[in-house]
Amino acid sequence: MKKIITSKNAPAPIGPYNQAVLTGNTLYISGQIPINPKTGELNEGDIKEETKQSMENLKAILLEADMDFEHVIKATIFVADMHQFSQINEVYGSYFSADTAPARETVEVSNLPKFVNVEISMIAVK
């Protein structure tokens, strides 16, 4: 059985999907882009600001499911420009302990929704 997880502190979906789905003890979080949930507008600062907003959106969804970043077992980062990876990684890494960081892949893509520079999805287990 699946339970839909929705947080008012993360942006509403921009298509036919949900912010997250909980099935059993596993939470599947849809990719988050740097949309400010309060304004519905893109946070179009530098790549560090975009990454931070994406991570804060993920954090809000995790909290709604009574989880935090320690529960994350897998992350996927999509980037528009791999040359920005070190800056993205710096912000992303600040949300995890190196000893318990999740598995991850980072993939460069030609475009992302709303033509943002970064999108991050996660899987967490309680």
UniProtKB/TrEMBL annotation:
EC number(s) on file: 3.5.99.10
NCBIfam families: Rid family detoxifying hydrolase (TIGR00004)
Molecular-function annotations in GO: 2-iminobutanoate/2-iminopropanoate deaminase
Enzyme class: hydrolase
Family as reported in the entry's similarity comment: Belongs to the RutC family.
Source organism (scientific name): Saonia flava
Keywords: Hydrolase
Protein name per UniProt: 2-iminobutanoate/2-iminopropanoate deaminase
Pfam family, any one: Ribonuc_L-PSP
